[in-house]
Amino acid sequence: MMQELGVTLEIIDRCQNHLLGGSKVRRHYLHHDYAKEKTEAWRLLGSKLEKLLSTEQSD
Asked: For residues 11 and 34, is the Cβ–Cβ distance under 8 A?
């Protein structure tokens, strides 16, 4: 669902805590935690789920 909402695959992987590929050097030096990006991805998904559930309950 996140992909459908426009979230990049890299952020989706990070939300799922997948081990990211790449060289050890790259993993060693790149430490950005993507907290803002992950928060936005989860917010988008939450909004989508709320909309789906509220539509389902009103039927």
From this structure: yes
Phi-psi region of 41 (alpha: psi -120 to 50; beta: other; left: phi over 0): alpha
Q: With 0-12 CB in 10 A as exposed, 13-18 as middle and 19+ as buried, what is 34?
A: middle
Which portions of the chain are predicted below pLDDT 50? none
Token pair of 51, please?
Answer: 């909309």
* Domain boundaries along the sequence of the chain: 9-58
Q: What is the pTM of this model?
A: 0.80
Under the phi-then-psi rule, with left for phi > 0, alpha for psi from -120 to 50, and beta for the rest, what region is 2? alpha
